[in-house]
Write a structure and sequence with these properties.
The structure holds two protein chains of two kinds. In chain A, helix 7 (about 300-350) packs across helix 10 and helix 11 packs antiparallel against helix 15 (about 550-570). Chain A is α/β, with parallel strands linked by helices. By secondary structure, chain B is mainly α. Among the domains of chain B are: about 35-65, no CATH class; about 70-125, no CATH class. Chain B contains five helices and two strands, in the order H-H-H-E-E-H-H. Classes of the chains: A alpha/beta, B mainly alpha. The interface between A and B is large, with 89 and 71 residues. Chain B: It holds the Pfam family YL1_C. Chain B: It comes from Sugiyamaella lignohabitans. Chain B: Its main location: nucleus. Chain B: One of its GO terms (cellular component) is Ino80 complex.
């Protein structure tokens, strides 16, 4: 036996397993306050990697920065304790209220808030337990962005020379320091020639370097960094899950990017089948946001049984009532039909046309054709009514007798007349029931006959039969689609369907032109006693036409027909498989949107856990891809490969390609080096030696390079001393290999 | 709170406003103009650079801006990120297949503009 559609399940290519859930990470509350480290190291340079995401500080003769904290300040007032607090860096996350008033020194890549900057510097020197009075007696080396505007430096110089009385000071670009640290101490070496790709928090910089000296005039900045990536993912998720119960915060998005995103080694290729059911389970990442399970009150077995019984009982009662009502209606319709038939007979035997007209007008019927139409419609409804359940038709083997019905009223007393009226009613309903039964029987026979004929036809001409059935199925499906389309159109006010509906409403609303033909014929106004609107069931169809809701009964019937046809085809048509059924085609496994939103798992809207889940799939490669194709996120700039390629192809004599160096928070993406290598390989001349590598430690290496350099003679000749500052003006710097140019 | 005075809470320990800063210059006074947003900073720098004699070899904040891409732009589905071969005429959104087109058609008003704003292609009314 072929499978019935209800049991149809598309074959599971992958074993069903519980998916791995990843937590929705956020910045955690630190266990303790940021400690104060070591003691003051007199005269040792202090290196400050002042990034827009994190700040790293420490004495230059140490291995690693002693502190790394978020470049953030939070000043807030606790009303209850009646005092203000200033929290800096990681300490902000000790307190929930502090998180609400976070300020960053930066706006985009530039320093905009000098109050916050000063607080962070205060905090840095305090944590390094600087012991000198009335000034910090250590040389300072600090990072700044590529192409930092001079006014920024002016402010920073003023702050450091006048606020902290530092003896000497210099600035450099973080990624150049990192490159320096990773390539070893010998600067004249060819290993210090290359291209630095710095994927920072606010921007991505690409800087060619020759023998340790940054060639800034050829450097480029792409306005896309970790912060933009986070807000991009945040926006993507907000649109993907508009009803997600909690809001995804920027820091959560940052963690998601860090934990789950990767660079695709071949973006178009990987995308083309990213959302395929069979392979998706290895690619998706499900993020589970915290939620509280609603505890459902467990009901005992008895209670459940009782409830089920109650439900069954009330259902039965309702059915009975409905059957009774249908029967009553059927009886009434039969009587009506009888009346009209009699009228028809009278008309047939009427002597002249005038008489006919008089009779018809008396009934509010326009002409004989209308009468005929009423009759045939009534017949149709009655026949339909008979096929429905009109009460118990199994019992009453013996016809009950209604003795009083045939006796004229005159021969009966009052009591008997009442009884007779009752009996007449009973008899009418009994007769109706019998007729319904007969009709049902006939219908059954007819169906059996049809089925027999159908079978015969199939056996004789299978191809023709299949064609016919398929056409019919297609027609029905087209019908369903058409209805769906109509429903969709109705949701759009400007569509034709909506306008037609408005027209119907307007016609109904206006009194002068009745919407119903019959009403108009009778010349009926609202208070017209002859108004027969509503007497006929079909009159109400006008409301169906204007209501947006669909006719569920009709649809149900259509669905059943489709199902039956599909089952027949499944059974006899060798080319019609389970895959072709409507159910299989509507299956969620085939839905791109389902895969995109929920992955290869069935979605249960009732589940609290599932409604708190984010499914990361295409986003995992879409977000990092912006670095390669900024146009994805609407940034009208060339991508990393294009910029690097341009520098490489313009300077073929300089062996830049030997050392492509990745630095910065965004450089952590898996596959990043391979992708860059492969794409550059494709555009460079054959046999160009090409090597791409990543900083050994993406967060510390800039600081380490800075610290290392600050202990050399080169540093000592590059600093601006207090005397230089006083003599040359507040924006003055000495140019060196790691620093920006002095543009003034 | 009596216990707080014995062992200060974490937030009181962390409060930086009460920490002494002996390393600060005694004569240092904070100036008043302490905040400028990015836009103002960028305009200031533009004005400053415009007043200087032009020089090609010096990197400035603006000269290092990466140029627009010269490669043909690829198109991706605005909803899913998959290849976006088609474009909805009514919304201007790119889409992957007919199922997503239907979803676009049923979108709540305004959602299409939000999707477009992801790639700066939304209509901005002024």
């Amino acid at each position: 036996m072929p499978p019935s559609i209800d049991s149809v399940k598309v074959e599971e290519p992958v074993e069903e397993f519980a998916p791995v859930l990843y937590p929705l990470r956020d910045i955690e509350k630190p266990e303790a306050v940021e400690p104060i480290t070591g003691g003051w190291k007199e005269g040792v340079p202090i290196a400050i990697d002042f990034g827009s995401y994190q700040t790293r500080i420490g004495y230059a003769n140490e291995e690693s920065p002693s502190h790394e904290f978020f470049s953030q300040v939070s000043k807030f007032r606790d009303r209850r304790a009646n005092r203000s607090y200033t929290l800096v860096g990681n300490d902000i996350y000790l307190d929930a209220t502090a998180r609400q008033s976070i300020k960053s020194p930066f706006d985009g890549p530039l320093i905009s808030n000098w109050d916050a900057t000063e607080t962070i510097l205060d905090y840095s020197f305090a944590k390094l337990s600087v012991g000198s009075r009335n000034g910090v007696e250590n040389p300072i080396v600090m990072t700044e962005i590529l192409g930092a505007p001079e006014p920024q430096r002016k402010f920073m110089n003023e702050l450091l020379f006048e606020g902290y009385n530092v003896p000497s000071l210099t600035y450099g670009i973080d990624s150049l320091f990192s490159f320096h640290y990773n390539q070893g101490v010998n600067v004249s070496d060819s290993s210090h020639t290359g291209i630095v790709v710095s994927c920072g928090h606010e921007a991505t910089h690409i800087i060619p370097v020759i023998k340790g000296r940054g060639i800034l005039s050829q450097a480029k900045r792409i306005n896309w960094g970790g912060r933009q990536a986070s807000s991009y993912l945040q926006a993507l998720l907000a649109l993907k899950y508009p009803y997600f119960p909690t809001k995804v915060t920027p820091s959560q998005a940052t963690y998601m990017i860090h934990d789950h995103c990767y660079v695709s080694s071949d973006y178009p290729q990987e995308l083309s089948n990213y959302l395929e059911y069979s392979t998706m389970s290895t690619r998706e990442r499900i993020i589970q946001a915290p939620f509280t399970e609603v505890v459902v009150q467990e009901k005992s077995e008895e209670e459940l049984a009782r409830i089920a019984e109650q439900r069954k009982e009330s259902g039965r009662r309702l059915q009975e009532q409905a059957a009774k009502k249908r029967l009553e209606k059927l009886v009434q319709q039969e009587q009506e039909l009888e009346y009209y038939n009699e009228l028809k007979n009278r008309i047939a035997s009427a002597p002249n046309k005038k008489e006919v007209k008089r009779m018809l007008d008396g009934e509010g019927i326009k002409d004989e054709a209308a009468l005929q139409k009423t009759i045939s419609e009534l017949e149709k409804t009655i026949r339909r009514g008979r096929k429905q359940d009109v009460g118990d038709d199994t019992e009453e083997q013996v016809a009950p007798s209604f003795p009083l019905v045939e006796i004229p009223d005159e021969d009966l007393d009052e009591e008997q007349i009442k009884e007779k009226r009752r009996q007449r009613l009973l008899k009418a309903s009994y007769d109706a029931r019998m007729r319904a039964k007969e009709e049902k029987l006939l219908e059954e026979q007819r169906l059996a006959e049809e089925a027999r004929k159908d079978d015969e036809w199939r056996e004789a001409d299978l191809e023709g039969w299949i064609k016919e059935k398929r056409d019919k199925l297609d027609g029905l499906l087209a019908n369903v689609r058409e209805k769906e389309r109509l429903r969709e159109e109705l949701s759009n006010r400007k569509s034709h369907a909506s306008q037609m509906r408005m027209k119907s409403i307007a016609v109904l609303a206006s009194d002068s032109r009745g919407g119903n033909k019959r009403r108009r014929a009778a010349g009926a106004g609202d208070d017209d006693p002859d108004d027969t609107f509503g007497a006929n069931d079909d009159d109400w169809a006008v409301y169906r036409r204007i209501a947006n809701a669909s006719d569920s009964e009709e649809e149900e019937e259509e669905k059943n027909t489709i199902k039956a046809l599909q089952e027949q085809l499944l059974q006899h048509d060798p080319t019609f498989s389970i895959e072709d059924t409507r159910e299989a085609q509507l299956d969620w496994r085939k839905s791109t949107i389902h895969m995109f939103l929920r992955g290869p798992h069935e979605f249960d809207p009732e589940s609290r856990a599932q409604s708190h889940q984010l499914n990361l799939n295409v986003e995992r490669i879409r977000v990092p891809e912006v670095l390669f194709q900024p146009s994805i996120a609407g940034v009208d700039q060339a991508g990393i490969v294009e910029v690097c390629g341009d520098i490489l192809l313009r300077n073929k004599t300089i062996p830049y390609a030997n050392n492509l160096f990745l630095h910065g928070g965004q450089a952590h993406f898996p596959n990043f080096e391979d992708r860059l290598f492969n794409e550059l390989r494709a555009i460079l001349p054959v046999n160009t030696s090409l090597s791409v590598k990543r900083a050994s430690n993406l967060s510390f290496d800039a600081w380490r390079g800075m610290a290392q350099w600050s202990l050399t003679d080169d540093f000592r000749s590059s600093v601006v001393t207090r005397e230089d500052y006083l003599e040359m003006g507040s924006g003055y710097i000495k140019e060196h290999g790691f620093g920006n140019a002095l543009v003034r | 709170m009596s216990s707080a005075s014995e062992s200060p809470s974490l937030i009181e320990q962390a409060d930086f406003s009460t920490v002494p800063k002996p390393f600060k210059s005694e004569s240092w006074k904070q100036s008043n103009k302490r905040y400028k947003n990015l836009k103002a900073l960028v305009t200031d720098e533009q004005k400053r650079l415009a007043s200087l004699p032009p020089s090609d070899d010096k990197a400035t904040y603006f000269s290092i801006e990466a140029p627009p891409s010269l490669r043909p732009q690829k198109h991706w589905c605005d909803i899913t990120g998959l290849p976006g071969r088609y474009k909805s005429a009514r919304h201007g959104l790119r889409f992957y297949n007919v199922e997503i087109f239907k979803a676009i058609d049923e979108m709540a008003p305004g959602a299409d503009q939000q999707y477009l704003s992801l790639r700066n292609a939304n209509v901005i009314l002024r």
